[in-house]
Amino acid sequence: MGGFFSVVKRNNQSCVNELFYGVDYNSHMGTRRGGMATFGDGKFERSIHNIENTYFRNKFEGDLDSFSGSCVTFGLRTSLTSLRLYSAGRASGRRSRLIFNIPVIRLFSITLPFPSGVSTIAPTFGGINLEDIKAPECFEIERRLKEELDIPVMHDDQHGTAIISGAGLLNALEVNGKNISEVKVVVNGAGAAAISCARLYIALGVKPENIVMLDSKGVISKSRQGLTPEKVEFATDRTDINTLAEAINGADVFLGLSKGNILSKDMVRSMAKDPIVFALANPVPEITYEDAMDSRPDVLMSTGRSDYPNQINNVIGFPYIFRGALDTAATAINEEMKLAAVHAIADLAKKPVPEIVNKVYHVNKLSFGRDYFIPKPVDPRLLTEVSAAVAKAAIESGVARKTITDWDAYKEHLMEFMGRESKLTQQIFDTARTCPQRVVFAEGTHPSMMKAAIKAKDEGFCHPILLGNDERIEKLARELGLSLEGVEVVNLRHDREAERRERFARILTEKRQREGYTFEEANDKMFERNYFGMMMVETGDADACITGLYTKYSNTIKVAKEVIGLQEGYKYFGTMHILNSKKGTYFVADTLINRTHDVDSLIDIARLSEKTVRFFNHEPVMAMLSFSNFGSDKDGSAGRVHKAVEILQTKYPEWSIDGEMQVNIALDRELRDKKYPHRFL
To answer: Global pTM?
Structure first.
């Protein structure tokens, strides 16, 4: 089974409906077979259907009347299951605080009359998200739920699509330089999503008289009979248009929420200059991306597909809107919260894109423009930016029952919750931004190093200095779509650097004159990027140097020893890895520099580690590792570790340090207490 969900109820009460309406799955994700089984009155009942390319409801709705029981299970056999269950509720008056396993029940495929069980189970959940409910029933269901419940209710097909497309509309208009109050909009489709989008577009500034809506019968005009109240809301006074081809002539914006391949190239050509086309029919859009771009070069295009630019996908909004609503214990998701989400998403697209997003989509650098005016669904900043904006709007509009005052701490908490940040990394980032240092990136012509340097500059971490041929660096930056503005480029081999090379050579010669160095030899070394970069650090021209992408590791260490040398009072130096885990932060040293260890090197590494851990604002608790535990093997390397620990405990009695010990003993305090109760640490 790809996934399963079970419901159990006491007192032999049937729970078939709870299972049926509480499961959300999408068949396009590879589901093959679905099964539902019940147990009650001492007997089992089951039903299995092929559910490829169809909805769960359509196959199992006919079984509901015949099924009953106090135990119900639904399972999927799938290549890639999309079973998503949101089951966490209020415990002791508090809502569960999950991120993507949000305590939101998703109700889909509900038909009127309204199922009585929905409002009954609602107090168990933090919010309700309606899914796959057709118009006009969806409007009435949403209205009644909002009236009856004091928790957030949202119809994702309506409001999710509206919010994301609204953000896309704002940014697309900024790209093409048009005023939202002047644009003419054609909406093809009159379902829940289309109605909601049109309403939101008006809230954003589109004039109602500039919207023309069409359904399967053509233009919705006031002369038509039998219109629903929602369609009446958007009925036009115009009598000169009846078809899509007539309506779209001269339009600035096309929003398609209908069916595939109904928008032709000629229709796109008839639109106004720099037209905006949102073809959102799924899985086949109203016009393909290729046809739209082929029709005219100035079109700004969006679809619902991830394999083309500017994807309009509800996942950009839904999780984060509910996150903000839940964190403020909001009683509703109101218009202010929706508009806040729109502007947060729109603003995010204008900011520098994280490298992780570029990597996922296999591009060098996304930047705001025709091919990128909507954030990608994988952008980790959506969590903090959209959630915080929605939460602020909930508080300011008066629907929040909980107030957030420290927004920086709130965002930090969200990032920690997602495993993308920790207090340590945030502390490092904040410290770096407070006093950005001059950092030499020695291998400046390497794409990864250039990206890292520019990213660090954009984040405010440092003032980067790229070493390398300036022409090659500029060429590479153009190829990668990167800006070198604010980045210093030093061509260490150019004639203009001759004076600095000679100065560096004399300093190095004086420093190593009793080690066989000559000025000529030292001057030759200044043509090497590592020598030159580390001399910049040694002389104060820079504060740090980053290297080692394609330089032989042993050579990097050799240069560091020659040019910068060791701290006074030390004979050895080392490296440290920092590991963030759910159990806390671990500092590991030395794993790279020193091939073999004697007692003196172990002592130096421990001293350096203690100092470094305190620099990161942690209280050092040090375990000296070996294959032996507390003297069980006193020969060889274990004996040297044992001796080093004895010396350190004597010299630094205030330190929390012990060993030698195996790594499992070091990481498991309960195990240490049990097996070695008389240890020092």
So the answer is: 0.63
